[in-house]
Automatic annotation (TrEMBL):
Protein name: N-acetyltransferase
Key words of the record: Transferase
Domain N-acetyltransferase, chain residue ranges per copy: 23-162
Transit peptide keyword on record: no
Organism: Ramlibacter henchirensis
InterPro entries in the record: Acyl/Acetyltrans_Enzymes (IPR052729), Acyl_CoA_acyltransferase (IPR016181), GNAT_dom (IPR000182), YitH/HolE_GNAT (IPR041496)
GO MF term list: acyltransferase activity, transferring groups other than amino-acyl groups
Length: 299
């Protein structure tokens, strides 16, 4: 997306058909954020303007405009030279059924041919992504609600939870890179600065961490990085107890063993998304220490 404006002929060439009448595609700008947040609320997505600004500051996107009004968005985040994530793909309900989502995605994917790209798809969008070469690799479960005080998770001898230290950042970023399967240093530094972080230590070495931050209707936990399921539970239980009685959200791998435990703790499942990858394979998730997403869009 080197051009500041993506004109209809360029986008239509990617899919072999014209754009819907009156719609143009251009680069998403900071001036679009309030309109994007309003559009997302129409889908019952709980993003605040601040959540949109956080995501936009780390990436770039395409806007669909009709009669001066924002009617669609798609964002991408480039992580290092080889990876990307895609999200916030949405089309105003009155504009659906005209393949505008495909136009947005083809414009967004321009230049990503040599990257491994991750996204989390709704049931409505999965078919579009499959036709674009994305393969299903898993499922994410969204859990949220008023956090109850979680049961204390007993850790093995030599392991403990401790606060974030001044010199932890570089090592925690390296743990995240391994667990996410891609380098996300700019995002991690922002999360460590804006949120609260607890570290899982084994003797004197950090082996995991979990961050909580303001998001949507309350707070969100993620990422959660740990060497095993017990460590992940301990990190999540810490934030559930610290935020007991407040609204919490967490997005976890469906096969991780965490969904059942979260239900037992009183955080019900409220939704799911399909994990899809193009240009893979992508080594990430519980087997590599990654137990919870930052967001479904950012991965």
């Amino acid at each position: 997306m080197t051009d500041p404006v993506l004109v209809p002929p360029a986008a239509s060439a990617a899919v072999g058909r014209a754009l819907p009448d009156g719609v143009t595609l251009r680069r998403l700008t900071a001036d679009d954020i309030e309109g994007a947040q309003a559009l997302s609320h129409g889908f019952q997505w709980p993003f605040r303007v601040e959540d949109w600004r956080f995501a936009f500051a780390l990436g770039e996107g395409v806007a669909a405009i009709r009669d001066g009004e924002l009617v669609g968005t798609a964002l991408r985040w480039l992580w290092g030279p080889d990876h990307a994530t895609v999200g916030h793909v949405m089309v105003a309900p009155r504009m659906q059924g005209r393949r505008l989502g495909q136009h947005l995605m083809h414009a967004l994917m321009a230049g990503l041919q040599d990257r491994t790209v991750l996204l989390h798809a709704t049931a409505e969008g999965r078919g579009v992504y499959e036709r674009m070469g994305f393969a299903i690799t898993g499922e994410i479960r969204q859990h949220q609600g008023q956090a109850p005080p979680a049961q204390v998770v007993a850790l093995p001898e030599g392991e403990r939870l401790r606060p974030l230290n001044r010199n932890d950042a570089d090592f925690l970023i390296s743990l995240d890179t391994r667990s996410a399967g891609m380098p996300r240093e700019p995002m991690l530094r922002q999360l460590l600065a804006d949120g609260e972080t607890v570290v899982l230590a084994r003797d004197s070495e950090a082996v995991g961490f979990a961050t909580v931050r303001r998001f949507g209707r309350g707070h969100a936990i993620g990422p959660v990085v740990a060497p095993d399921l017990l460590g992940a539970r301990a990190l999540i239980a810490h934030w559930c107890s610290r935020h007991a009685g407040k609204f919490l959200r967490i997005d976890v791998d469906a096969a991780s063993g965490l969904p059942e435990w979260l239900e037992e703790q009183g955080l019900p499942r409220v939704g799911s998304a399909t994990t899809m990858v193009r240009g893979g394979p992508l080594e990430r998730g519980p087997a590599h220490g990654g137990w919870a997403l930052v967001t479904q869009a950012l991965g």
